[in-house]
């Protein structure tokens, strides 16, 4: 499975509508309204690169009100459990 983080810049007056439209696209698991240099962040989880192209190029990028997107592919996922295990020194409690 591929995970992509898509940063979305939108027309300010259309941010809520853009967020709703992005969440309706199959393959988009979450959309966050955020502070900082971008307006929205979408988490995309798909089976392969072809599906990713469909979600981003054929879906997200065609939503009215979107000005720009930047897509980052995740290499690895680190959860709190993974990090605890990675830094466990084996000293016991």
Automatic annotation (TrEMBL):
It holds the Pfam family AsnC_trans_reg. GO terms for biological process: response to amino acid. Residues 6-77 form the Transcription regulator AsnC/Lrp ligand binding domain. One of its GO terms (molecular function) is sequence-specific DNA binding. Coiled coil: none annotated. GO terms for cellular component: cytosol. It comes from the Bacteria. Transmembrane segments: none annotated. This is AsnC family protein.
